[in-house]
Each structure stands twice: as C-alpha cells, then as structure tokens.
Amino acid sequence: MSLIAHLLAGIGRRVLAALATIGRVVLFxxxxxxxxxxxxxxxxxxxxxxLHIGWLSLPVVGMTAIFTGAALALQIYAGGSRFDAQAVxxxxxxxxxxxxxxxxxxxxxxxxxxxxxxxxxxxxxKVTEQIDALTTLSTHPMKYLVAPRVLAALICVxxxxxxGxxxxxxxxxxxxxxxxDFNGAVYIRNTVDFLEPLDVISSLVKGAVFxxxxxxxxxxxxxxxxxxxxxxxxxxxSSVEAASxxxxxxxxxxxxxxxxx
Length: 261
Fold this sequence. Notes:
- 86% of the residues lie in helices and 0% in strands.
- The chain has helices at residues 2-36, 43-53, 58-80, 89-127, 130-136, 141-179, 184-194, 197-223, 228-259.
C-alpha cells in the first residue's frame, strides 16, 4: 500500500504543479492584455514586432502553404479515383486548407519561428540583466517587451493565415490544372461556391488565437527562464513545445465551437 500511496502522491504533485503553471500563464496573459490598453505605448517596439512576426514570416508560411495545397490535391485525387469521385478535389482542398490545415500549419510555423525567437531574446535579456535595467529606468518589462509582441501576433497571424489559405488553394489549383487535367475556371468556381463565410471566419479567428498563444508562451518562457546559457536553451525548447501543444488543443476546441452540430 505504501508503494501505491507513493505513486499517487507523485502523480498528485505533478497535477498540482501543472495546474499552478496553467494559472501563472493565464495571469501572465491577462497582465499582457491589460498593458496593451494602458499608456504609455511603445510604437517602435510594436512596429519591430509586426515586421518580425508578420513580414519576415511570410516566406516560410507561403512555402508551407503552397506545398501543402499541392500535396493535398494529389492525395485527394488519388483517393477519390478509387470511388470515381475525382471531381471533389477543388471543394475538399478548399475546405481542408481553410478550416484546418491553413491555420494549424501557420500556427505551428509561427510557434517554430517566432515563439522560439521571442523566448531566446527575452531570456538572453534576463541573463544579461537588461530586464533589470529596464525596471531601474522605470520602464515596465511587461509593457515594453511583452505587450507589443502579443499585440503584433494578434494582428499579424490572422493576416498570415488568410494569405496562407489563398496560397494553399493556389497550390492545389496549380497541381490540378497542370497535372490532373482540371479546367481552371471550373476549379475556381467550385472552390468559391463551396466555401461559406463561416469557414473563412473560423480560419481567421483560429489565426488570432494561435498568434496570441505563440507570442504569450514565448514571452512567458523568456521571462521565467533560468540564469545562464542552459536557462536560455530550456526556455526556448519549453516555449515551442508548450505553444505547439496549446495550438493543437485550441484547434480542437475552436473547431468544436464553430462546427459542432
């Protein structure tokens, strides 16, 4: 019995530690949002974050989307040919990209590129005592470092998701027209007629949520990092892991909220 009690106690400690971490992250995100709407505002930091998160992420997002759309079209055509259903390629590609693959892949790319960068940058600033210097200069680190990055992600990632959706559909169109002998005009008409406004809205809302998750986890891991190079490495790794898992979990929740019957 003592062994069982010891195992249960260990599980209980881990559960309580996980719940405490979730609570700290939620409070951290709430403080970040509160600093977004209270002056002073740091416009230069926001512009730098918009450039880093939005514009500089566009190439990797575009390449990911176009290859995904092309591969999806080939897979759907190959699967549909078994049931003489090749004609549904435009509709399924559009639905798959806009509802799921577009926002999820963009979110994961942002987690890989932006979350890791934010965590490493802020953790390095903590190690080199730059955050302490900000406090000494009466500059709140949450307002100067965290709020602009979270706000920039909230603005940029839905735009990236929308562009990724378009590029992904274009990838499917290119393969279907050039390799699978689809008529281009018919393909576009089927795509436009099949998509509904709710599909596009859900995609953009997912992008906003995923962007907030990615930026928040990067900032949180950086602010909570330990001292030294190992602390920076652990912060970077844990931020990407947490952001990726939370993005996938949030995708399930949002899909259920938008499309549950």
